[in-house]
Amino acid sequence: MSKTYKWGILGAGRIARKFANDLKYVEGARLYAVGARTADSAHEFAIEFADVKEYDSYKKLVSDPEVDAIYVATPHGFHHEHVMLCLEHGKAVLCEKAFAINTREAKEMIALAQSKKVFLMEALWTKFNPHYLKTMALIRSGKIGKVKSLHANFGFKPFEPVPQRLFDPLLGGGTLLDIGIYNVFIALSVLGRPDVIEATAELSDKGIDMQLSVLFKYKGGEQAQLFSSFYTDLSNECDICGEEGRIRMGTRFFAPDTSITYYEGKPDTAEVIPYHREQGFGYQYEARHVQECLTGGLIESPVVTWNDTIVQMEVMDEIRKLIGVSYPKDK
Fold first, then answer.
1. N or C: which end of the chain has fewer CB within 10 A?
2. Domains, the chain, ranges and CATH?
3. The model's pTM
């Protein structure tokens, strides 16, 4: 008889609710408990999702011996603190991105997972979604020939009430760690770590990036142009351009409800590439992978490795250094 994994959710916000919803599509998964900062938040979450234990503190959640794995869904400014709490209590962790504020924090989190021999993975959900897998398979097949450039943008204009985490340096505010990370992720996935990084940004009066332009350069001549903004609702698309064609991941290129279009030549050669997606928001794929890892006795994912996370954090640290964004937790 296969094991049922009892999931705890640390944080009771919007992303936590989406992940909790998608657990019903994962065989052997049970939404077991939620931990929130207040009793009211935990209770509201528990009402929405029936038969869920509610805890009015994160410490109480991680202390529950029945919890097998915890999804950390708090703002990234708190990830280091909350992941360390989970690991200290021997709980397997799936931590939302951005994994941490900086590379130092990320390395400390991974080091504790190693020493405790407890599973830890960054929740880069895109890497498990069917549209991403289909796109990467097309690239590997030579569909567009040698990739020479990538162009990704992600922008939105926050609406009221504006989350504090977006603009507060104490919480790792700015476009890079909130949405620009998707641009960095897809560039690293397709082209690898760049040899040269150039970046420019407009900073707020609090010193966080309101809009950001990044250029990755590679020794083979390849380039990636990445743009993120809190000023405008952008198309949020990604073009991957090769010597023999182009692939466009449409609006919300990072999510399973996007589209994939192949262009052999000019725009009138467009061919929509079909792919199958399940019901739900798309978080079930990463949850399913975590359970497979736990069943196999792994403490590190072979898909989103610890090195993947460190490289991504190092690249984002370098970008922040170039644009002059420093957080209190960097000191």
1. N
2. 5-125+281-300 (3.40.50.720), 130-276+314-330 (3.30.360.10)
3. 0.95
